[in-house]
Structure formats: structure tokens, C-alpha cells
Amino acid sequence: MAKSQWSFKSATELSAALAAKQVSAVELAQDAIGRIERHDGKINAICVRDFARGLEAARAADAARGRGETGPLLGIPVTVKESYNIAGLPTTWGFPPQKDFVASEDALSISRVKQAGGVILGKTNVPVGLADWQSYNEIYGTTNNPFDLGRTPGGSSGGSSAALAAGYGPLSLGSDIGGSLRVPAFHCGVYAHKPTYNIVPPRGHTPPPFPPIPMERDLAVIGPMARSAADLSLLLDVMAGPDPLDNGVGYRLALPPSRHTALKDFRVLVIDNDPVLPSDKDVRGAIERLAGNLAKSGASVARHSPLLPDFAESSRLYMRMLMGFLGAFFPPEAIAGAQAGAARLKADNRSLAAERLRGMTQSHRDWVLDDGARARLRAQWRELFRSFDAVICPIMPTPAYPHDHSPDQEARRIRIDGTEHVYVDQLAWPGIATLPGLPATAIPLGLSGEGLPVGVQIVGPWLEDRTPLKLAELIEREFGGFVPPPMFDD
After folding, report:
1. Among candidates 99, 83, 86, which has minimal Cα distance to 139?
2. CA atoms of 135 and 156, how far apart (whole Å)
3. Bridge partner list, 146
4. How many domains does the structure of the chain reveal?
5. Which of the two ends of the chain, N or C, has the fewest CB atoms closer than 10 A to its terminal CB?
6. In the chain, which residues have pLDDT < 70?
7. What is the Cα–Cα distance from 40 to 162, expressed in whole angstroms?
8. Residue range(s) defining the domain that contains residue 101
9. Residue 465 lies in a domain
10. What values do phi and psi take at 85, rounded to 5?
């Protein structure tokens, strides 16, 4: 069966077609289901199928439209990262002992998607504990990149990015603490948005078997993924807003509008490389082309600024704070090993790997001091955004790399222009926005010489999510965006 005219359309385009009665919600669901059944044996993006309930929701959406009802996602096919609770479906986070855990209620974001009329077709694959930029586990197997099945689709929202690239619906929900929205978007050539910290309530995005109660997860956010920039705003507006159970925690004010609506008015700082973690020629080349295009469009483009926080220092701080949070959930034997390793560190060892060990074993006093350093970092970013509207920089140093499932991630290596680097050090570029809690929009910038997606992230000011989102829309409109993977463009 050939692809339909709807397979790679955006949610915005599909909503218009539904309103004009050019297509039905059932037809859109059937098209996406057909693509999953036809292609997912090779990609393995959808780990939990929910087709019967999805078709039921599609029929309900058609009936609602027939009654004159509307909704931002009414009749739109959606996939969801496996880590979200959906009532009646398993939530495992890839942990084999939790393979039989079934959620009894929807995550808050899932409830909001359903209320908005979204048609959920299934859940997408993840790495164990959402702790890798590759998406594989013993329960559901390995997800492959639709542009090259021998390479990672990214992680931890890798199933979602692969599903979007393969045409399994125009929207997906993901999460991010170490780039888990932005990295898979980069590797599969799609869009994602890491929201400002705490504007999207995470209730129900919960590791099993913990109860889905309101709680703050330091650094972590949930957010939208799509094949077009405008669709990110569409889904973000559905997901965002305070949790009614959190006693007022969270942001209740409407997000301010974008600072500008035309490319020529944006003031952009473009960073393509740093000694902390270099980017390769494909990434640098894509950023260089974008910078040139922006300048030709009249935007103010700077390549250096003393206002930019020190990348080496902020990366070290991020490694400590990230691992201080994640380490709280590690088993005792892992912490004991980290303590032994940290005890052997020399005081002058400032490598990112050393800072990760220190973070896993730090005292609460050390964490409080680091939190103070983060407050100073946020103040530096506020000062920078008085002179700039956005910072464009790498998400990852290279396009998608071959699968590597060796168990010790610290022992893995990636090659950047022929030189080996520590695999886990790739946290540095996602961390530039994660540590201060800033919004960051991942956008594709075409394909490398090997036919692999490349892209960048647009980092924006605190609570000003609509500024990087609007810049992403303008870049897509002027210079192009998502390109379907040749193997699955049928």
C-alpha cells in the first residue's frame, strides 16, 4: 500500500483538512496504523500498540466534528513515550522487573491530550530508565533510526523521534533531562521543544511502581515532539499549565508572546564549537549555513559574546547536579562503586567524568552550594538575553552513530572528526539549556553527506518559550525543515 497524501502532513495541516471534511479522523488513524504495520518490523518504534482504542477515539472525534465541536487536537493521531502512564497500558521505563506493571490512570498530560481530541495510537520505545541516547531494553528490543537502521534514533525519546520520522502520526510526547527530547529529534531530523522548567506538570510521567503524585524532578521536563515547528506550540499549549493537585506550584501566567515575528528583527548568538566537546564538520557546516541564511534575511548574527556563560564551568556544574539527582535512585552497589572512584580522584581532576563521580557522591551541603552557583548562572543568562533573543548551538557533536550496547557507558567512545571522545561527555551540549532551566527548541537543518539528519537547538530566555518556537517556525518557512527518510517515504 502506497503512502497517502496525509502520511507526512503536519498536525496543523491535518486539522485544516479535517475541518474541511477532506479526510476523516478514522482515515488518518488507519493511515498511521497501516504505516506502523508496514514498517515497524524494521524500525521497532512502537513498543505498545493501542489500535482498537485509537480507532474508537477517532470515531468519537468524527462524531464530535459532526456535531460542530472543535478541539486543538481533535482527530489528530498521536504517539506517546513509554514512560508516560496511560490507563490500561504497561509502563516499564524499560526495567525488566516492571514488565507487568499496568497504569491505572492517565498522566495529566495524557488526560489533556485526550480532552483536546488527540487520538493516541500507542507508546514508543525507550532505553532502560530513560538513561541513554540509544533506545533499547530487554522487554521491547532495539529501536532503529529510519535513516539508517544500523544507527541510533537517539534517546531517551528515541521511539518517538523514529515514529515521527517514519510517518506514524504528526505528534508525540517525550521528556528531557539529558537531551532526551532534543537529541532524538536531532538524530531523526524532526522537531522537539524542551520547555522552561516546571511549566508543564509531570504528574504521571512516573517510574513504576511509584504513585503518580505531583512532585518536582530537578532538571527534568516533559514536552512536545513533531515534524513541524508550529505543531510544537500546538501540543505545548495543550500540555502546559499548572497541576490542580500541586497546591499552586507551577506557573499560572500565560507565556509571553515571541519577542519578534520576523527574522530580520531577531538578535541571535550562534555558537558552533567548543573545546569542552567539539562538534564535527557536518554539524559545524550546517550551523554555518544557517548563520549565513539568517544574516542574509536581515537578522543580527553574532558569533562570540563575553556575556555567554563559561561553557566548561557550567558543564562541570551540570554534571554534578545531574548525577546528584539521578544518583539518588541508583542501587547501593552502584553508589558504593562511585564512592570508591570519587575517593581516588585528584583534586585537580576537572574532567567531566570526574565531576559526574563527585555529583553521585556529593553531600547535601555540596548540592546546596552548587544550587547557589546555578542561581548565579541563571543571572548570567538573564543578562545575556538583554542583548540577544536566542542562542543557536549544537545539540550533539555528530550525526547518529552505530548502535553500541556495551554496558559501561563511561567506557564507550564516539568519534568526532576522527578523534575519540568519552560517550557520556555528550551531555554537555544538551546541558547548556537544562541546567538553568531554559526553553530550547530542536530543529532539523537537512542531511549530512552520509544522508543522516543534522540540526541545532535554539535556546531562549526563561519563560519565553514562544521566542525560540517562533524563530524555529520562521527558519522552517524560509529554509526548509523535515525531510522524510528515503527508506520509508512510501
Report:
1. 99
2. 6
3. none
4. 1
5. N
6. 1-2, 247-253
7. 10
8. 11-259
9. no
10. -75, 130
Provide the whole-model pTM. Answer: 0.97
Residue 412 lies in a domain: no
Residue type, 467: T
In a domain, 365, yes or no: no
User: Cα separation of 33 and 29, whole Å?
Assistant: 6
- The CATH number of the domain holding residue 138 is 3.90.1300.10
What is the pLDDT at residue 120? 99
* 237 phi/psi in degrees, rounded to 5: -65, -30
Integer Cα distance of 377 and 313 in angstroms: 10
Do 180 and 155 form a contact (C-beta atoms < 8 A)?
A: yes
